[in-house]
From TrEMBL:
InterPro entries for this protein: 6-PGluconate_DH-like_C_sf (IPR008927), 6PGD_dom2 (IPR013328), Mannitol_DH_C (IPR013118), Mannitol_DH_N (IPR013131), NAD(P)-bd_dom_sf (IPR036291)
GO-annotated cellular components: cytosol
Domain Mannitol dehydrogenase N-terminal span(s) in chain numbering: 34-271
Entry's Gene Ontology molecular function annotations: mannitol-1-phosphate 5-dehydrogenase activity
Entry protein name: Mannitol dehydrogenase domain protein
UniProt entry keywords in alphabetical sequence: NAD, Oxidoreductase
A GO biological-process term: mannitol catabolic process
PANTHER family: ALTRONATE OXIDOREDUCTASE-RELATED, MANNITOL-1-PHOSPHATE 5-DEHYDROGENASE
Residues of the Mannitol dehydrogenase C-terminal domain: 288-424
Length: 513
């Protein structure tokens, strides 16, 4: 069976397989490059690149994407092997009925590697047709490194790469043609502002001309954005059946839910240059992203983070199992509607409707969203997604949010490190099965030191000691919890229960009370 590439598109259009596929219009395959994209992973391809293809098919955007692989390892070679063509399968419930869309996306022109092809990247960056830069370099990507050097090939951090790229455009194209619009997709608050701040700092560190720094500050646009789509990536467990069904091999195939939302905060001209909304896509341009972000982070992301460590300890493996479990599912529903929704500012009926929609998305029968994948970097996620809801609930009601407090205990129980081989760290589920814990190594070493104890009985006093030590770590941003002894007492009690009774019985006790 042949691999998917551009030459296959004509064959597919003439074959019976085309009835399964939404093929890109032929006139969209040779459009000019208008977007530079830092990141080639599953999310950007199933989100940005797929949406751009949909807009191109409606003659709206009329532009392609050049992808930059920002780190040493990645998918650039695989993307180029298929001429940038890949399959995106979107699945979900639409108007009460199951729906599947299989789209071949041809919006990627080519991929370059920052490491090994940096001169080529800078050359492509001089293209005046490129007006938009999108990125997803993970939450840790928008940060300055002490190793950043202007003349490195390439500079170390993503902001340093952006600084060098902007300088090359400025010198080559001038003030007007060189300016860019940045739309970062990293899941951090005010991502555009953070990227701009990093770039300006680096301009000063590199001792670049004041005129250039003023140009970056005033003429380039750094939008804050919010992205929302569950992307599960390559469907390893069903790829054999899909390959037979499609009639070709696609090593870049990616699966997501049907739902998508992209909120972009910026000046009004941004939507004129990047008019995806005109294609009927759920892309919102706004002057204030804050209400959208708070709602999404606390309800959808917070729902995940509050529950996955408990569900995984209990022996569940996927989000759908979690939300349909009679005990864990009831806990999640009560947590969202009784403790999280009240903390989200705005119209409560709209916020409740959003929470209900989130629960329905979690039940998507087509999405096998692994709980263990969601546990990646849970420390930073808990700090952003859960603790603010917990503190806001307590400050506004004066009551303890017991379900959210249990979620903190669930996080600590998940990070109970039982073994390390020096490189990887492992915990153990209630059934004794071992699992990897993935986070910053510094966090993992810290947690290991807390859980290492000669007395392994983990009585209530020892649990309280673990809670106090763990919540003191600055990355958890939990100072507010430590100031409320009643919260520490509850978390300690819940941690004790999780260790001695197991996750299901501990959750049952909380929802029953």
């Amino acid at each position: 069976m042949k691999n998917l590439n551009r030459n296959m598109l004509y064959i597919l259009s003439e074959s019976g397989y085309s009835k399964y596929l939404l093929l890109p219009k032929t006139n969209t395959l040779d459009l000019p490059i208008k977007v530079m994209q830092f990141g080639e992973g599953n999310f950007l391809r199933a989100f940005v690149d797929s949406l751009i293809q949909m807009a191109n098919d409606k003659d709206i955007f009329k532009g392609k994407v050049i992808v930059i692989q920002p780190i040493h390892e990645g998918r650039a070679d695989a993307i180029n092997a298929s001429n940038g063509i890949f399959t995106h399968i979107a699945r979900g419930i639409h108007q009460g009925q199951p729906k599947e869309e299989i789209r071949i996306v041809g919006s990627i022109d080519k991929a370059l590697k920052a490491y090994g092809q940096w001169d080529d990247v800078l050359e492509e960056a001089k293209d005046p047709n490129i007006k938009i830069v999108v990125s997803n370099t993970t939450e840790a990507g928008i940060a300055i490194s002490p190793d950043d050097r202007f003349d490195d090939n390439p500079p170390h951090s993503f902001p340093a790469k952006v600084t060098r790229l902007l300088y090359e455009r400025y010198k080559t194209l001038g003030k007007d043609k060189g300016k860019l619009i940045f739309i970062p997709c990293e899941l951090i608050d005010r991502n555009g502002d953070v990227l701009k701040e990093c770039v300006i700092k680096l301009c000063h560190k590199f001792d670049l001309e004041k005129e250039f720094i003023d140009w970056v500050d005033k003429e380039c646009t750094f939008c804050c954005s919010l992205v929302d789509r569950i992307v599960t990536g390559y469907p390893q467990d069903e790829i054999e059946e899909l390959t037979k069904r499609l009639g070709y091999v696609d090593n870049n195939l990616v699966v997501s839910e049907l739902f998508h939302l992209w909120v972009i905060e910026g000046p009004s001209f941004v939507k004129d240059i990047f008019p995806l909304h005109e294609a009927g896509l759920n892309v919102i341009f706004t002057e204030d992203i804050t209400p959208y972000r708070t709602r999404k982070v606390r309800i959808l992301n917070g729902g995940h983070t509050s529950t996955v460590t408990l569900a995984y300890a209990a022996g569940l493996n996927y989000v759908k199992e979690m939300v349909e479990h009679p005990i864990i599912g009831a806990y999640l529903k009560d947590l969202l509607f009784e403790e999280v929704v009240p903390t989200v500012p705005g119209n409560k009926s709209e916020i409740s409707a959003f929470a209900q929609e989130v629960l329905e998305r979690f039940k998507n029968p087509y999405i096998k969203h692994a709980l263990l994948d969601i546990t990646l970097n849970s420390t930073s996620k808990l700090a952003v997604r859960v603790i603010p809801s917990l503190l806001d609930f307590y400050s506004t009601t004066g009551k303890l949010p017991n379900r959210l407090l249990l979620s903190v205990a669930g996080y600590l129980r998940f990070y109970k490190i039982t073994r390390t081989d020096g490189k990887y760290f492992y915990g153990t589920r209630d059934n004794g099965e071992e699992y990897p814990i993935r986070d910053d190594k510094e966090i993992l070493e810290f947690m290991k030191s807390i859980w290492d104890a000669p007395d392994a009985s983990f009585g209530i006093r020892q649990c309280r000691s673990i809670v106090e030590k763990a919540l003191s770590h600055p990355k958890l941003e939990a100072e507010g919890l430590l100031k409320v002894p009643e919260m520490i007492d509850k978390i300690s009690l819940y941690l004790h229960d999780l260790l001695n009774k197991g996750a299901v019985e501990s959750v049952r006790s909380v929802i029953n009370s």
